[in-house]
Amino acid sequence: MKVEIQSDVRDVAARLGTGVPYALKVLAGRLADDPDMGEPSNLPGILTVMIDGGMFEDCPDLSVGYIREPDRIEIRFLRAVQVGVPSGDAQEQREEQLADPAAAASGVREVADAWHRITAWLKANAPDSYAALHTGASPAEIASLEGDLGIQIPIELRALWLLVAGDDGGNGWGCLPGNRALMTLEAVAGVYRLKMDAQAYEDTLNAERSEDERITVWTATRIPVVALGPADISSGLYVDVESGYLGRWSRYNEGSGEVLDTLVTYLEGAADMLESPALATGDKPGLIGGALVWQSSIDPVQQDDWRPWRG
Questions:
Q1: How confident is the model over 216-228, as pLDDT tens digits?
Q2: I need a labelling partner for 206 at 20 to 30 A (CA). Which of 136, 150, 220, 286 fits?
Q3: Residue 246 sits in the same domain as residue 158
Q4: 277 with 308: CB under 8 angstroms?
Q5: 257 phi-psi bin (left φ>0, alpha ψ -120 to 50, beta other)
Q6: How many other C-beta atoms are found inside a 10 Å radius of the C-beta of residue 249?
Q7: Are the beta carbons of 35 and 73 closer than 8 angstroms?
Q8: Cα–Cα separations (whole angstroms), residue 27 to 39, 52, 116, 230, 302
Q9: Is residue 121 located within the same domain as residue 68?
Q10: Three-class DSSP category at 2
Q11: What pLDDT shows up at residue 97?
C-alpha cells in the first residue's frame, strides 16, 4: 500500500520536534502494512491514529489523520496532543449525526484538497505568506469555540480549522483574494460576540418597529471566517450554518449579503486563480518580494514593486 504525506504535514512535523519526522516515517511504514489501523474520527472519511511520543527522541504525543483509499493512503493532518489529555478526547470520539455521511466526507476531502493546493503554491512561490499561516487548531480548541458560539460548526469549516487556524499575513497581506485573511479562532469568537450584541440592540428597537421596518444585522447561524486583512477585522466573510453559503459582514452593519460561494468553492476558486492566473477573474495574483499580493489591494506607491504572477 502506497503512503503519501502532504508537504505541509512534513513542515508541521519538522516544527513539532526533531524526532517527529522519523516518527511519522515509522507510522507510514506501519500504515502500509496495516492501512485500517486507525480509528474513525469526528471528520467523515478521516481515520485517526495516535503516536506515543515517548518511543522517540524529541517527539510529543501525536494525533495523525489520514484518508484510506483502495490503492493508497494520504496523511492529511498532524498535531501534538496536549500532555495529560487522553487520546479519546470527547470531541474526537463523538459521533456526528449526519444526514448524508458520504456528502460530508466529500466536503471534508474537497476542503483539504483545495487548501493543500493553496499552501503548495504559497510554499513554492510566496514563502513569506506561507510562513505566516498558523498551524491547525486542535479538536478541543474547536469544541471550545463551538461551546462559546452555541452552534454546531459545519464539518467543512471544522476540517479547514484542523489544517489552519489563522493567517498573520505575509508582510501584512492575507493569502486569499483581495488579500483577505483567515481569522484566528479568538478573532472569530470576538467578532461573533460583537455582531450578536449589535443584533440584540436592534432587537430592542425592533420591538417598537413595524414588521416591515425591523432590521436584521446578524443571525446566530453566521460564523465569521475571513477578515478584510490580518490586522483589519472591520469586515469580511461569514459561513451561514443553515444555507452553507458565504456572506459579507461588516462591523458597521452595512453591505451584508450572499456571496454565492460555499467554503469549498471559495477555496477552490482561490486555488484555481493561483494555478491558472490567465483564467482568473475579479482579481489577479502577484508577488511583492516573498509575499502573495492580489492586484485589487495594491497601494499605488507599491505598484512598481508588484510582479503579476503568470504561472
A1: 889 999 999 999 9
A2: 150
A3: yes
A4: yes
A5: left
A6: 27
A7: yes
A8: 14, 11, 21, 36, 47
A9: no
A10: strand
A11: 38
Total residues found in the chain within this entry: 311
CATH of residue 193: 3.40.1580.10
Same domain, 114 and 73: no
Q: Which cell numbers hold the place of 280?
A: 482568473
- Least confident piece of the model among 40-49, 205-214, 224-233, 249-258: 249-258
CA angle 114, 117, 119 (to 5 degrees): 110
Average pLDDT, the chain: 88
Yes or no: say if 176 and 187 are a contact pair by the CB < 8 Å rule.
no
Domain extent for 146? 108-308
Residue 179: DSSP 8-state: G
For 296, the grid coordinates are 485589487
Task: Evaluate whether residue 240 is within a structural domain.
Answer: yes
- Cβ burial of 42 (10 Å; 0-12, 13-18, 19+) is buried
CA-based nearest residue to 114, from 240, 257, 261: 261
Q: How many domains does the chain have?
A: 2
Packing angle, helices 7-16 and 20-33, rounded to 10: 130
CA atoms within 13 A on the CB side of 56: 20
Residue of 185, 95, 104 lying closest to 144 (CA atoms): 185
pTM of the model: 0.78
Q: At which residue does the C-alpha cell 469526528 appear? A: 42
